[in-house]
Design goal:
By secondary structure, the protein is of the alpha+beta class. It contains ten helices and eight strands.
Length: 292
């Protein structure tokens, strides 16, 4: 028997965010199971019959399974699985064959009809999982993710994520403050929203080059670029970028941390002007002193 810990004597207290994550996870599971039952029954199949077909198709390394293997996969008793297979066989969804290595062992596999039905039902389930994926994110060890979300939300700097098409998908409070666009205005918009028009061709040429090659020379550098606010004013920005990749290694999008340095830049420009003026004055004084 598995050693399952039930005591919470040594467990640290959960935070409010962790309780919320657990509640969301539980709610997501219930919603998904209800969807599954309704979708399966609408196709004239019982939920356990769908689970049987899915277990057969998803069995590691082969397309058939023994009854005891199915009992383990479905967490059912042997006689319950036998009854389930009988009913599925009557519906033409599965069939039995003898194991060629041991005729006493029965192998179960999908029929062509069962395969077609499973493909239709699994496509529906796959689409539903994509739709509610965030709700089913495991809450265990989720504290780091929750902290990350809070850092992004509360950061004074703008934190923006755009997908490979240049469409904004993440826009924090810092971005709202710096650029003047509310989150609902920015999400789904192109990055052209914050790029001055004359700089867009160069920006997108570099963007597309990184998408194609997967490489950038700016990954560890702090860059300085002009930006555009909602009221049309231009600002000076410093930013760093990170490339996000999909499981295959292809570029999925870019995350950027941006800071408005307009005031500092104006001060730097003013300081340079003063220095140039002082140097010019010193040159003039030097020239006057040398004149006999």
């Amino acid at each position: 028997m598995a050693n399952t810990r039930t005591s919470t004597d040594e467990a640290p207290p959960l935070s409010k965010e962790e309780f919320e994550a657990l509640a969301q996870f539980r709610f997501g599971i219930r919603n998904y199971l209800r969807f599954s039952e309704e979708a399966v029954r609408s196709h004239g199949v019982q939920p356990q019959q769908y689970q049987l077909m899915l277990a057969l198709k998803g069995f590691p390394g082969r397309e058939t399974a023994r009854i005891r293997d199915l009992a383990d996969a479905l967490q059912l008793r042997h006689h319950s699985v036998v009854g389930l297979i009988d009913r599925a066989q009557e519906r033409g969804l599965v069939h039995r064959t003898s194991d060629p290595l041991d005729e006493r062992v029965v192998q179960v596999s999908l029929t062509a009809r069962g395969q077609r039905l499973l493909e239709r039902l699994s496509a529906l389930h796959h689409d539903e999982l994509k739709r509610i994926g965030a709700a089913l994110a495991p809450p265990v060890g989720n504290q780091t993710a929750l902290i990350g979300e809070r850092v992004v939300s509360n950061a004074a700097d703008a934190i923006i994520y755009a997908d490979r098409d240049g469409v904004i998908r993440v826009w924090n409070a810092g971005a709202e403050r710096i650029f003047g666009y509310a989150t609902d205005q920015a999400i789904g918009a192109s990055l052209d929203l914050i790029i001055p028009e004359k700089h867009r061709p160069r920006h997108w040429a570099g963007w597309n080059r990184v998408i194609e090659t997967g490489e950038t020379k700016y990954g560890t550098e702090l860059l300085a670029v002009p930006g555009l606010r909602a009221d049309g004013t231009r600002i000076s920005l410093e930013f760093s970028i990170a490339i996000l990749r999909d499981p295959s290694g292809a570029v999925d999008g870019f995350a950027a941390v941006l800071r408005d340095v307009s005031t500092r830049r104006e001060q730097d420009v003013e300081l340079r002007k003063r220095l140039q003026a002082a140097e010019k004055r010193l040159d003039e004084l030097g020239s006057s002193a040398e004149t006999p």
